[in-house]
Specification:
heterodimer; A: mainly alpha; Four Helix Bundle (Hemerythrin (Met), subunit A); 8 helices; extended; disordered C terminus; B: two-stranded antiparallel ribbon; globular
Chain lengths: 177, 497
């Protein structure tokens, strides 16, 4: 019962704050609304006893990524931009129509395709999302996850090299080759 | 395989990665390395050759069990065939890049590092037996390519290409990941335990998949279709191909296709029992891709854009092989046809871009049809090579492109998809028009194209790359038997435990 009430409250916060994020014309307000969305999602993860993902959600998304967003917004000094009030364009209509179709599709799928509302109860999941369990899965030599975990390090190396290639000063001009 | 055996089996990838890191460090810390201009390129080439040696060695032994790292990778003979093909194409791309980059003053070690990392990503895409590994491999390939597309930083067009590719690529990655999550959920709901392992999904697959599995499959198709430039998801291709430095475009056009189609093939063969649910989508996308790609290519006057649309069209042809693999009886032929066509497409396309790279020099990047006007008089060698590649792309006998189309045609017939075969034949005729227009411009049009006062700093690389590509694709047309070992190896995914 308590979990039910918590879910509805969190869902309401999540939806309202994401609507604020899309609708607000002030970028800082948008970013802060996004933080709220991320945090309410993190709490939802905890109610599903996925502690590790909840912690990562807070640290990475609500923390690091959002700080980056705010830095960029503040560095570029974006206030509320005086956007010219556009007449409702074709794009808006199309976007709303597509979103509607998607919503109907999702609801229809839930109703007609017998998607189970909650296939596994939270009790079953207890212990599945803890840091300990995830550590076992990631580093155990008898699980397939060790390889993708190591491959991720190469992916990160590529990203670092790429960022430096794209961001550093061009040496070609100064060397005078 | 135990983990130790698995490590041994992915030695090609490990070799590429280590070579990439050595190139990166050498370029950063050794002054003579950077001054020499060819050190990074030659070392990368050496790494690729050693990796190919490991892959050949592995191909010559018939492995009894192909799943490595407890099911993360499938390293059977199909994977080794794709690995060899990718290494061949990467080697040619490195050779061609040395000259082009030196001429454009872009010759830096990071280029080769990123090429090597991207190649290992593509190899892992072909090897991935687990959808999570597939996702990481796709990202390894893509992130390296986003950076390579923007490697010519002083040019706004290159930056535009990188940004466009990055934004759309990140969007597509979202589809891929969402699809993987749905497939996992679909497997969990059907009471068989959630898994993203393709071999397990295949074993547990009934002929009626759940709603979530179908939705997940559709989203994964969108994600991979973006990488392979299939038609509703091809919008990025012309701009990115045109804006990227020519050596990058050549590499990107061929390596991504090999990786993406190997992955598509593996995915859809795993879901082959449920073919009724995905085959119509593949057929429709294949027809759309073939028709749209060819029709849009007709109107282009920029050769790079034309080749971009032509690569879209070729993706449509390759999708026929995926559709044919839905019929179990036609599977070996479909796999074989796909690998052969990928080899043909890779050599011809890389060759065509290599000619453009060869003709470009410090001040001018050769890319429009008017640059090629009357080239046969000013630079006969380049012109004739271009003619070979264009005829091959058009599928005119006796070139490799013709044999490749023939294999695809037979695969479609064997799986009783007559109208796919007919579409292939019809659009091929449209394709001949725009390829022959390039030949016409080269040989019969008056006027002066790009000046051929070539920078003679290191022309050897691009020439070797060109001649090897032309030789292999002609040989593939006249005596397809030279590709026989690769095709025999590709006949089966060989992974069902």
């Amino acid at each position: 019962m308590f979990a039910q009430i918590l879910f509805w409250v969190l869902a309401a916060i999540c939806i309202i704050s994401s609507l604020v994020m899309v609708g607000s014309s002030n970028p800082v307000r948008s970013a802060l609304a996004l933080v709220l969305t991320m945090l309410s999602l993190a709490v939802m993860y905890i109610t599903l006893s996925a502690q590790f993902i909840a912690a990562v959600q807070v640290v990475v998304y609500a923390g690091a990524v959002m700080v980056l967003f705010l830095f960029v917004i503040m560095l570029l000094n974006l206030g509320a931009p005086a956007l010219p009030e556009q007449p409702r364009s074709m794009q808006t209509v199309l976007a709303i129509a597509l979103a509607g179709v998607f919503l109907v599709g999702l609801v229809a799928a839930g109703v007609f395709q017998n998607l189970p509302a909650a296939p596994i109860s939270a009790k079953h999941l207890h212990g599945l999302g803890t840091v300990q369990q995830i550590g076992y899965s990631l580093y155990s030599p008898h699980q397939p996850w060790l390889f993708p975990f190591e491959a991720t390090s190469i992916l990160l190396l590529i990203a670092v090299v790429g960022a430096i290639v794209l961001a550093r000063k061009q040496p070609a001009e100064t060397e005078g080759s | 395989m135990t983990n130790a055996q698995s490590m041994q089996a992915i030695l090609p990838v490990i070799t590429l990665l280590i070579t990439g890191m050595v190139v990166l460090l050498g370029d950063a810390f050794l002054p003579f390395w950077r001054r020499s201009g060819v050190a990074s390129g030659s070392l990368s080439l050496l790494g690729i050759v050693i990796a190919a040696g490991f892959a050949l060695d592995r191909l010559s032994h018939q492995p009894t069990h192909s799943l490595a790292f407890h099911g993360a990778l499938s390293l059977g003979r199909f994977t080794q065939a794709c690995t060899l093909l990718l290494l061949l194409l990467a080697g040619l791309a490195v050779l061609l890049a040395v000259t082009y980059l030196e001429n454009r003053r872009l010759n830096r070690g990071e280029y080769y590092t990123l090429v090597l990392f991207a190649t290992s990503g593509a190899i892992l895409m072909a090897a991935a037996n687990d959808l999570i590994v597939l996702f990481i491999a796709v990202e390894m390939l893509s992130v390296a390519l986003y950076v390579l597309a923007g490697f010519a930083r002083s040019e706004p067009r290159s930056e535009e290409a990188a940004l466009k590719y990055f934004l759309l690529g990140a969007f597509a990655a979202g589809f891929l990941l969402y699809g993987i999550a749905l497939i996992y959920g679909g497997a969990a709901i059907s009471g068989l335990g959630g898994t993203t392992n393709l071999a397990l999904l295949h074993l547990r697959q009934g002929s009626v998949p759940g709603f979530m599995t179908v939705a997940g499959l559709a989203l994964v198709l969108v994600g991979l279709g973006f990488k392979a430039a299939l038609v509703p998801f091809h919008m990025w291709a012309p701009d990115v191909y045109e804006g990227s430095p020519t050596s990058v475009t050549g590499f990107m056009a061929v390596v991504v296709k090999v990786g993406a189609f190997a992955a598509l093939m593996r995915l859809f063969i795993a879901f082959a029992p449920a073919a009724a649910y995905w085959l119509p989508a593949i057929q429709i996308i294949a027809v759309l891709t073939m028709v749209t790609g060819n029709l849009l290519a007709v109107t282009q006057t920029n050769v790079k854009r034309m080749l971009a649309y032509s690569s879209v069209a070729h993706a449509g042809y390759l999708l026929i092989a995926v559709a044919a693999a839905a019929t179990p009886a036609a599977q070996p032929l479909a796999l074989q046809a796909m690998v052969f066509y990928l080899a043909a497409y890779g050599l011809m396309t890389l060759g065509a871009f290599a000619v453009l790279a060869w003709l470009s020099h410090r001040d001018a990047d050769c890319q429009t049809l008017s640059d090629l006007r009357g080239l046969v008089r000013t630079d006969p060698a380049a012109a004739w090579l271009m003619v070979i590649f264009m005829l091959s792309l058009g599928g005119i006998p006796p070139t490799m492109g013709f044999i490749g189309k023939w294999y695809l045609f037979t695969a479609a017939l064997q799986s009783h998809q007559l109208w796919l075969a007919i579409t292939l034949a019809l659009v091929s005729m449209v394709a001949v028009f725009y390829y022959l227009r390039v030949v016409w411009t080269l040989c019969f049009e008056e006027g002066s194209g790009i000046s051929v006062s070539r920078n003679t700093l290191a022309p050897a690389g691009v020439q070797i790359s060109l001649y090897v590509a032309a030789l292999l694709s002609l040989l593939g047309g006249i005596a397809p038997i030279v590709w026989q070992p690769l095709m025999l190896a590709a006949r089966s995914l060989g992974r069902m435990p």
